Amino acid sequence: MSASTPEQSTSPGTASASPSGVARPAVTDTVITYAGAGVDVEAGDRAVELMKDAVKATHNDSVLGGVGGFAGLFDVSRLLTYRRPLLATSTDGVGTKVAIAQAMDVHDTIGFDLVGMVVDDIVVVGAEPLYMTDYIACGKVVPERIADIVRGIAAACSVAGTALVGGETAEHPGLLGEHEYDVAGAATGLVEADALLGPDRVRAGDVVIGMASSGIHSNGYSLVRRVINHAGWALDRQVSELGRTLGEELLEPTRVYAADCLDLVRELNGPAGGAELALRGFSHVTGGGLAANLARVLPQGLLATVDRSTWELPAVFKLVAELGGVPQADLERTLNLGVGMVAIVAPEAADAALTRLADRGLSAWVMGQVGADDAAGSAAAGDPDYVQGAKGVDGGAVRLVNAYA
To answer: Where does the record place Low complexity bias (predicted)?
Structure first.
């Protein structure tokens, strides 16, 4: 007959021992709830109610179901009409630009930065971004603030012609401050295989066309914020060179190029695809700057010579350089400096491309040309104006020449 150990009795408020001998917390009369821990489910539901009409406005006939399902559904029956359909996908966030939005308590524009960073990577290969999802992590769900963020995302998706089919808002008390949040998103696009754009399309003699940015867009804000903090400038400071406050300039939404680029594809390449396309490819100028991102979409052995004198630096970039004493090489490796997207086209298509972009209200200009790379020694010599390969892509090269206008 085995011996048994009597259970230890404890009075309220004293520690007890578990069977393993590990002390258990004291029993108290405290009631701990999810809301008490900092997560307000009702606030999340309220945020959905405030945003759902904006989300629905992005839906087309391919979107199935409504807002709030476990998964977004998108009818891809159109794939049956493709000879060889390719799916393209991209994911990104906004980065520390959200700190500017939070400091200014303006949240309905940051969605354009998110959507631009995601869908404009997809159109680089000629793919149409079909649908997008978003993710918002915050310290506390303030329904109106979350709804403003999502309304901005939805508005940008409408500009891009992309359906916003789902998303998630997560409350992370203790990890993020009450007024802090971060946003991320992902999108999926579609392109016919023989219409795919990329380095293998580019030829010597092709023309490089720059498309104007709307401002800093969403890259380099760690540098920009460091500069303005060093200068002691407040976000509500009126800046004559900018014609508005510093904060308004820094919060200027990213231009979403997706619809412009796809229109240009249709205009220059038509629906058929094929071995030779007049529009060879695009480069989305994000982190790393113009030269590094352009080099990613060039084949080995070719060099794009880009002439700085073909455009003037917008005032905000001059301001950052002057306030922080930032070297030009560092500026060019970090910020877009007025160029948000680049198109590479056959020389005979350059005029048509410029006309089409102008018709859509987009400032664009010829900024360079592609030729043979005869500057192999430039990289070894540490020439800051010469970039070959970037972000893991051992592709072509870019050389920046002359001074900005």
So the answer is: 9-21
Dihedrals phi, psi of 241, to nearest 5 degrees: -60, -25
Distance CA 43, CA 49 (A): 10
The total number of residues shown for the chain amounts to 405
d(CA 221, CA 86): 34
Tokens of 18: 């578990």
Residue 12 has what pLDDT? Answer: 43
C-alpha–C-alpha distance, residues 287 and 293, integer Å: 8
Determine the average pLDDT of the residues in 2-22: 47
Q: What are the backbone dihedrals phi and psi of residue 298, each rounded to the nearest 5 degrees, phi first?
A: -110, 145
Distance CA 361, CA 36 (A): 52
Look up residue 211 and give its DSSP letter.
E
Contact 197, 156 (CB under 8 A): no
Q: How many degrees, rounded to 5, is the angle at CA 273 between CA 270 and CA 279?
A: 65
Whether residue 92 contacts residue 114, with contact meaning beta carbons closer than 8 Å, is answered with yes
Which of 200-209, 240-249, 267-276 is predicted least confidently? 267-276
Q: Which two tokens stand for residue 252?
A: 């200027």
Report the SS3 class of residue 168.
strand
Identity of the amino acid at 90: S
The CA distance from 55 to 45, in Å, is 15
Return the exposure string of 283-301: e unless at least 16 CB atoms fall within 10 Å of the residue's CB, then b. bbbbbbbbbbbbbbbbeee
Label residue 7 exposed, middle or buried (CB < 10 Å: 0-12, 13-18, 19+): exposed
Least confident among 151-155, 237-241, 264-268, 385-389: 385-389
Tokens representing 398? 């870019």
Rg, C-alpha atoms of the chain:
26
